[in-house]
Fold each of these.
Amino acid sequence: MLDRKLVREQPEFVRAQAARKGVSAPVDEFLRVDGEWRATKKELDDLRAEAKRVADSIGALRAAGKTEEFEAARAKTAEMKGQQKVLEEKERWLEEQLREVELQFPNLPHASAPDGKDETENPVVRTWGEKRAEPSRQHQEIAADLRLFDAELGAKVSGSRFVVYTGAGAKLLRALANFMADLQVRQNGYYEVSPPALVLGQSLEGTGNLPKFADDLYKAEGEDLWLIPTAEVPVTNLMRDTILDGARLPVKLAAYTPCFRREAGAAGKDTRGILRMHQFDKVELVKFVTPETSYDELEALVTDAEDVLQALGLHYRVIELCTGDMGDKAAKIYDLEVWAPGEGRYLEVSSCGNFEAFQARRTNIRFRREAGAPPEFVHVLNGSGLAVPRLMVALLETYWRDGHVEVPAALVPYMGGDRIDAPASHPF
């Protein structure tokens, strides 16, 4: 959510910044409901003050023997209690209406975010490493030869866009996840958590996934429980309704979880292999920081995610999302795209964003700079560190050799060997 004061005092600015993202903010509706809510609140405050004044006079009137005035004051107090109840109900209803309008606002892009209409206008910030010089094969062909995953088995038990990882493929999945989590904890100072994969609707609302993106989520029938689209949701909400100690910021959390997405708007896109699935694994990084450090922390977050790709020796590029491609929640975003030589293209494996106070206002996450200082909203950042399936695609296609896949040195301790070969036998 945005700062209410900002929308009230600078509505045209808010309108213009939302337009940079190509969206229309409900400024007029906000001002209408907010005006009515504030008028009702003032009326209620005035009534409470008058009710207190009359109530305070009752004892003096009784002591003075002013029976008529005493009875009139009692009657007025009773009348005002009824009026107060009506106004309190109206204020609560208007507050709910105001929040519904607020939840429709996008976050405003940072001044440094490049303007653009869509992904074709995202500038490349930097590249690292070299593309594989010799031709490679596509990952699903490699996986078929080495029995790494099976889409038919996945469809058999769960339907389309699910796979079963088998043999060395299942081991590689675990190895990548453990390697990435260990790197972020041991090298980059994150504190590891393992949150639930089912969350309340309130948690999804807090991170901005609800109400707008409900069609991309899986919901448990008859319950207010939703499968997480990313660990960003439960990890951010671990701090909901919390006032953090400013001296201990930044707080840096890392979580490895499965993620679930319906991909409702992605019919026909990347249906081969494991490029786009309904269930996938990911290591997520979440930071809670002070406002004045948040953009330095964003650069550091990107570097933390890059560490994984560099350790695995994979060529990648960092792009900055233009305003038309960054979505509703972030103020500034960088994507990491790894080169997949068999696909002949870059694949997004991480999106690192600064949400400023947008999620903190929705989840009421604040901090105090010192004891007794007024609480302020933190800035929340998150990024993938990284998404496992597409990372696996790039690794298989980069390190494919004739008949086997070489294992990068950093991954050898997790795989227990330096190559992946076809199994001598398998149960499927």
Amino acid sequence: MRRIRRSRVLLALVVGVVALAASVFMVGRWALYGSLARTSGTVRVAGLGGSVRISLDAHGAPTIRGETFGDCAAGLGFVHAQERFFQMDVSRRVTGGRLAELF
């Protein structure tokens, strides 16, 4: 009888540890993937004179097409900000002593 009780307690403990590890993994993944750049979809940005189209090739290099030079420059700034957001987020967390929140 004790042997069955021990194995049930051990099984419950293992299931609890696995569930906790899965939860930590999912929260970490959510925190990291939330700061990645969007690679598809449409974004409406105020202040543009016309439309800007940003496409990525197979290697992830952006091609920016716009109606005016100012629109293209705004598109370039948008792409640059998206690509560097993860780096800026990590730098902010390091200086604030909050990097462990990600991991």
